[in-house]
Design brief:
Elements: H1 2-15, E1 19-22, E2 32-33, E3 36-37, E4 39-43, E5 52-55, E6 68-70, H2 77-89, H3 96-109, E7 116-118, E8 123-124, E9 138-140, H4 144-147, H5 150-153, H6 170-182, E10 187-191, H7 194-202, E11 209-214, H8 219-222, E12 228-232, E13 237-238, H9 242-252, E14 260-264, H10 272-290, E15 300-305, H11 309-315, E16 320-321, E17 345-349, E18 364-367, E19 372-375, E20 396-398, E21 403-405, E22 409-412, E23 417-420, H12 453-470
Parallel strand pairs: 10-11, 10-14, 11-12, 14-15
Antiparallel strand pairs: 1-4, 2-3, 4-5, 5-6, 7-8, 7-9, 12-13, 15-17, 16-17, 18-19, 20-21, 22-23
Amino acid sequence: MLQFTKYINKIMAANISDTDVIIDTEGITVPECAHGPALMFVRYSGSDAGRRFFACSAFRDRKDCSFFQWCDEKVSQEKLEMRKVINKSMQPKYSHRQYRERFQLVLKGIHKKERQLCRTCGLFLLPDEEKEHEDHDILNKIDKAMLKLPSQLFTPLDNNRTYAQYLFSKKTVAFVLDQLKSLNKTHVICLGAPRIHEAIMNEETGTLKSYLLDLDFRYMQMYGPENFSRYNMFNHHFFDGERSVQFLTKFLTGCSHDQVVMVFDPPFGGMVEALSVSIRKISELWKSVTKAPTDLTLPILWFFPYFMEKRIIDSFKDFQMLDYKVDYDNHTLFRGDVKKHGSPVRIFTNIHPQKIKLSADEGYRFCAVCKRYSAKENIHCDVCDSCPTKYGATYRHCFKCNRCIKPSKEHCEVCRTCQLKGHSCDKPSQGCHICGALDHKRRECPEKGSQKASKRKRKWVENRSKKKMKC
């Protein structure tokens, strides 16, 4: 439980910190790093509070991508030239075409007993290349059946904020494919969901077609440009530029708008605001190619932890969270067989929940009032008029807060809200991150960008503590 709590705090910290991403950069020259256009940020604390800067969109850790530039910084020509050299050095060793040519040589020219994959480099080896990788993790004797499952061949990249390749279990994959077919979908855009793409590509019936968009360059070996494009979901950057856009357009051409769906499995520590921009741009492409009515949006299945619900709903008002518990193979915190209450990962979707049928054999039931399938512990509340339980034991209604809460919480008369038993009232649990006021959130704060904000918040906390002591 402690490990799970630490993990949640880590994800929340990536999304709710003293730094915000600024989406609107119209009229501003945005620099690029090796992962495409940078994102603009603003920090609200410290000596540089209110000052804006550019940083890598994909990697939040400077160890993975060291790019950083103040927005008001005058960059010298020498530094610009050095940046070009660094960006080039961080690109994959080969182009998409070269990777495919190498893979065809491995597939057709090398016997299965002699096929090798360097799992350290994520590269299939040609004859005489073994010496260059002698100290690496080498996988030998790769047959064609193994080549159909690249997600099992490659070592998962589990950086929570960037790759987060926590791979769906077979049970979850089967569930997703069954739902897509029951919804009469034929064309699936897999955004960061390689295992779903892999399963569709291996299907013998051919009722589903898939296009994978992913940052992982290793898949350039396995799939041609007609099925895969290297893509950065945090800034809508296609690494092969317009060529990739043309292939994705071709994939969507000829099908009806209601035959297309997106399966989206981003890193759990990813910035929802940045991701939402990319989603909307892909949706615009879908609408343009398929001639979809202007009032429609691209159907999406978004896989994310339940505790990030508010961030998603803030960006997409028409999304709802399903009760289905999503299992992963290689993540101990998100495996249903090792979690008391099952995986905390859910599906957020703009498809009507009534259309996503959950099995009674797995404990789900249909709520006639909510017109959706609910988990067995998610009992309908007549006061809230909803099935309110998100995770764990059945929630109970608090008439003072006028909402349902976890049974582990109780109403605190000092905080005037429900808190965990034994919590500290001195620690503010809600309100504006910048000034501490309870009537608004950080994004609407009138002190946003002000260096006085942190001082105001400290003063507010001190005053709040004094009032509690009097109580």
